[in-house]
Amino acid sequence: MNKVFLIGNLTRDPELSETNSGVPVCRFAIAVNRRFSSQDAERQTDFFNVTAWRNLAETVAKYTKKGNKVAVTGSIQIRNYEDNAGQKRTFVDIVADDVEFLTPKGSGSSDDGDFAPAPRKKPTLEAFDDDSDIPF
């Protein structure tokens, strides 16, 4: 099974484009902190290239920008190619199945159509004094 789950921050604004056949594709990169620090107490960071397709691509491009925190669920795709100098290269990409926006509205996200989590209401307790229905 090829399944990956990453939480990180966008390192650049998403780039939305279309294939020759008109299918939307969005490419972006995220920085993910490792769980443990190195010996010199510095946290290591890994950088992942992510590709989203179709409606997900359009949604990511519309609602995220550099610095936003996202959760990406998808699969790892590895491609091998030969560069102009004849060197063999390997490209690792995350193909997104789902992207959840974790940056709340008003914290630096885009001005039009910000993601906003559902507002939370504090429960209110009301006094209830009706001892007449208690059978004992």
Automatic annotation (TrEMBL):
GO cellular component terms, semicolon-separated: nucleoid
UniProt GO molecular function: single-stranded DNA binding
InterPro entries xrefs: NA-bd_OB-fold, Primosome_PriB/ssb, ssDNA-bd
Cross-referenced PANTHER family: SINGLE-STRANDED DNA-BINDING PROTEIN
Organism of this sequence: Candidatus Borkfalkia avistercoris
One GO term of the biological process aspect: DNA replication
Descriptive protein name: Single-stranded DNA-binding protein
NCBIfam families per the UniProt record, alphabetical: ssb
PROSITE patterns referenced in this protein's UniProt entry, alphabetically: SSB
Regions of compositional bias (Acidic residues) in chain numbering: 127-136
Keyword entries, A-Z: DNA-binding
Annotated stretches, region: Disordered: 103-136
Top-level taxon: Bacteria
Assembly, per entry: Homotetramer.
Pfam family, one: SSB
